[in-house]
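Q: Here's a chain of 126 amino acids. Please give me its 3D structure as tokens.
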Amino acid sequence: MMSINRPIRTDAEHAAALREIEALMDAKAGSSDGDQLDLLATLVEVYESTRWPIAAPDPIEAIRFMMEQKGLTRKDLEPAIGARNRVAEILNRRRPLTLPMIRALSVLLDLPADILVQSYPTRTAA
């Protein structure tokens, strides 16, 4: 088993690190193998986040996803957004989220505010 103790820079090094992680999966925490596993996991995470970054989700899609996950209805969003028509305007992209809405939705939906503050397309009323 090779020991990787420097940044991963290539796909081949990434593949080798994944193989080594698989071999170390049963290592006890605090042991030298456990420490090597922690180091490799960190190196792989850094490489993957740099090599294949994940774009921030669209705020409205994130709200809809969390509503579905939590079994919430539009009515459940009213305390965070406002009256029924305001909820509809937000979810239909006719009105942007405001900072107070973002704060309230972040708490209600357990969504990081940095997802909700991303810019997203809105539609103007016809």
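Q: Can you summarize the key feature?
A: Residues 11-51 form one domain.
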